[in-house]
Amino acid sequence: MTWPNEHLVRVRAGLHTGEIMLTEAGYVGITVHTAARIMSAAHGGQILVSGVTQRSAVAAGAEWSFRGLGSHELRGLAETHELLQVEASGLPAEFPPPAV
């Protein structure tokens, strides 16, 4: 898709691994909320994952590397979460600290 005036649209992504439930209203559970908070901490063009997602990706043979960003308190969640940035060819590498 071409954006007007050749604007660059930089999306942000946040991934977390855990259990969810499918209801008539859609997917629910703390995992959904945690993934949303991780995404909110990312900057445009950045992919952030939780520690549990990073470990799962490595165990599955992921071909990317990860840069640890430390543990962070995410709005509305009781526990702190380890955040890591996905590093892969073609992705920007330098960002400000997570927006928590």
Inertia-based shape: globular
Radius of gyration: 15 Å
Low-confidence stretches: none
H/I helix tally:
2
Work out the helicity level: 10-25%
Q: From N to C, what is the helix and strand string? A: EEEHEHEE
Strand arrangement, largest sheet? 1-4-6-5
Largest sheet features: 4 strands, mixed
Beta content comes to: 25-35%
Structural class: alpha+beta
Through-space gap between termini: 31 Å
- The residue-averaged pLDDT reads 93
| Total count of strands | 6
Write the layout of secondary structure elements.
Blueprint: E1 13-15, E2 21-23, E3 26-28, H1 30-41, E4 47-50, H2 51-59, E5 65-73, E6 80-87
Parallel strand pairs: 1-4
Antiparallel strand pairs: 2-3, 4-6, 5-6
Could you characterize the architecture of this molecule?
The protein is an alpha+beta fold and 100 residues long. It contains two helices and six strands, in the order βββαβαββ. The chain has helices spanning 30-41, 51-59; strands spanning 13-15, 21-23, 26-28, 47-50, 65-73, 80-87. The strands form two sheets. It has a four-stranded mixed beta sheet with strand order 1-4-6-5. A two-stranded antiparallel sheet has the order 2-3. The protein is globular and about 40 Å long.
